[in-house]
Amino acid sequence: MNALKLRENMAGYVLLLPSLLLLIVFVMIPIVYSAGLSLFSWDMMRPKPTFIGWKNYVTLFHNESFYNTLWRTLLYAVLTVPTSMILSLGFALLLDKGQRFVLSIYRSLFFAPIVTSTVAISVVWMFIYHPDYGMANAILKWFGLAPLRWLNDSQTALLSLAIMAVWKHMGFCVIIYLAGLQGIPAELEEAAKIDGAGLLQRLWSIKLPLLTPTMFFLLIYLTIEQLQTFTQIDVMTKGGPAGSTELIVMHLWNYAFERFQMGYASAIAMVLLGIILLLTWIQMRLVGKKVHYQ
């Protein structure tokens, strides 16, 4: 029995080995290298970095622009994560009882933004937000509202990016929610109907509690994803206007590839990693306790 169990374990380890190697090469080693580089001063021009200890971190925590970008990043996450989860849940509930053929079509439509290049999507949304002939202002005009400058106004630029992010991630969330909804045993709903439970009662007492693992996964996934937002900002605003859309990864990129302060940029990356780990731990401690597993 022990020999059989050992062979089964070895087979599992062999199957995990390719993924484990990819994780080590493309995730763990870069993290360790970046952590080490954050203790050095290096502009990529000199052959060898200069060791300066914790100076990069001291400079970082005394840099007001870092706190501004961190605040904007957290605000961006607050704007996008709950909105994406709530709207996608509504769409998933509407699609849950659809016919299989129709449901497969809607799944493809919702999932299309996920598999489309972020650069291509950003270019399309730049046209949508164009102040003169964009679709967004055409819709506002149709409702009798004044046009906005969207990406060209520091008051609306971050909100404009948040709207695009919600649209882009909604498809993924809808698919995940649908998988969770279809995993709920039909017998529970049938029993609730027999007991006289209405639609809202079944939603509140059966579906939502059994969807909490799905919600918990999406909460952590979306939080991590939004804290690392970069591509659409680089394409659409470059962090402007007046730095109103410069989030923390864009801030990191500017120091790394415009100012060539690789040690300081690595320190920003390590702080971002710490923030992500801290928020994930807080979510697991506060929200994880309320998750109901079947």
UniProtKB/TrEMBL annotation:
<keyword id="KW-1133">Transmembrane helix</keyword>
<dbReference type="InterPro" id="IPR051393">
    <property type="entry name" value="ABC_transporter_permease"/>
</dbReference>
<feature type="transmembrane region" description="Helical">
    <location>
        <begin position="74"/>
        <end position="96"/>
    </location>
</feature>
<keyword id="KW-0813">Transport</keyword>
<protein>
    <submittedName>
        <fullName>ABC transporter</fullName>
    </submittedName>
</protein>
<dbReference type="InterPro" id="IPR035906">
    <property type="entry name" value="MetI-like_sf"/>
</dbReference>
<dbReference type="GO" id="GO:0055085">
    <property type="term" value="P:transmembrane transport"/>
</dbReference>
<keyword id="KW-1003">Cell membrane</keyword>
<feature type="transmembrane region" description="Helical">
    <location>
        <begin position="202"/>
        <end position="224"/>
    </location>
</feature>
<feature type="transmembrane region" description="Helical">
    <location>
        <begin position="108"/>
        <end position="128"/>
    </location>
</feature>
<feature type="domain" description="ABC transmembrane type-1">
    <location>
        <begin position="70"/>
        <end position="283"/>
    </location>
</feature>
<keyword id="KW-0812">Transmembrane</keyword>
<feature type="transmembrane region" description="Helical">
    <location>
        <begin position="157"/>
        <end position="181"/>
    </location>
</feature>
<keyword id="KW-0472">Membrane</keyword>
<dbReference type="InterPro" id="IPR000515">
    <property type="entry name" value="MetI-like"/>
</dbReference>
<feature type="transmembrane region" description="Helical">
    <location>
        <begin position="262"/>
        <end position="282"/>
    </location>
</feature>
<dbReference type="Pfam" id="PF00528">
    <property type="entry name" value="BPD_transp_1"/>
</dbReference>
<dbReference type="GO" id="GO:0005886">
    <property type="term" value="C:plasma membrane"/>
</dbReference>
<comment type="similarity">
    <text>Belongs to the binding-protein-dependent transport system permease family.</text>
</comment>
<feature type="transmembrane region" description="Helical">
    <location>
        <begin position="12"/>
        <end position="35"/>
    </location>
</feature>
